[in-house]
Structures are given as structure tokens and as C-alpha cells.
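Give me C-alpha cells for this 229-residue protein.
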Amino acid sequence: MRHLERHRTHRVGWLRAAVLGANDGIVSTASLVLGVAAAGADQPAILVAGVAGLVAGAMSMAAGEYVSVSSQSDTEQADLAREREELATDPEHEHAELTTIYVQRGLEPALATQVATQLMRHDALGAHARDELGISDTLAARPVQAALASAATFAMGAVLPLLVVLLAPAATILWAVAGSSLLFLALLGALAGRAGGAPMGMAAWRVTFWGALAMALTAGVGALFGVAA
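Here you go.
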């Protein structure tokens, strides 16, 4: 049967990784560029620092996301293995456990027993994974997908302030990078909010606020050390 409603839960995995990657790419690269520029570096040095930040950041995002999501996946697989063993050794207890879950969700005991019986007959492990452990195909951990999405979106986000460094006059790099990066962040937040079904204005505001704070602090550090040097 075809669903008429438009749900967005299936986007949670890739949307989280994509927004996190792009946001980090813009914020970290723009902040790095502003810090180096505020310290008095010339345009080629600023560009080299930005490109190095892009490569290092993309690899760091990929590695971090892979390790993090792999840990989640390991935990899920361990829970599934334990559940598979319990289904093989004590199916009656597992049936009673599933029945109790359905009763707690509002079903009458007789109906809950019938539902548990039919679902376990169809796919016992799937039923327990979904209703007891909260593991489903939609929300399952996918380390490689998350790592690639994070690295790719970080690089895409990082390229934006670097393009501004290339195109803007040397005298206006600070303001051009800061202003354009805040615009990019606002657009990213709005798009993420739209894709996830959240208010676009609030999503844009929170991304822009934290990005502006990071860039201001980094530029301040660059200016302080540049003057000290």
C-alpha cells in the first residue's frame, strides 16, 4: 500500500552526517582563513593554509565519523547476536517479553499475544530488534556511508571560503570571507531545516550564530598573535 504522508525519518542518517560535514567545512576553513589573515599573512599563505585545512579536516571528519558509527554498529551487532541466541534457547521467554512490550503500548493482553505470535512467526529477530532494541533498517548504523558523506560534504563546505579567498581582493579578504561564510551557513541551515521538516529560520539562526562565534574568536587570536609577532 502506497503511503500518502511524507515522512523524513529515513533521512536522519545521511542528513546528520551531511549537515555536520558541510557546517564544519565552512566554519573551520573560514575560521582558519580569518585567523591567518588577521595575523597579517599574504594571500598565497592564506590559501595554502586553507587548502591544508580542507584536506586535514575532510580526513579527520571521515575517520572520526567512521570510528564513531562503527562503534554504534558493533553495539547493535552484539545486541542482535545476543537476541538471536536467546530466541534459539528460550523462545517462550522472548515471546512473553514481546507480548509485554505490546501490552505496555496499549494492546489488550490477548491481542498482544496474538501480535507477538504472528510477528515472531514471520521474523522473530526483526520483531525483537525493532520493538525491543529499537534497531531498524532506517536508523541502522552505516559507518562507510557516514564517513564518505562527512568527508565529501566537509570538502564541499570548505571549498566555499577558499573560492572567496581566490576571487576577493587581498585588502578585503577578511570581510569578504566572514560575510560570505555567514551567508553560506545561513543557507545551509535553511536547507537542512527544510530537508528535515524543521523551521528554516531557526535552523539558519543556530548554524550562523555558532559559525560567527567561531570565526570571531579565531580572527581575534590571529590578530593578537600577529600584533605580538
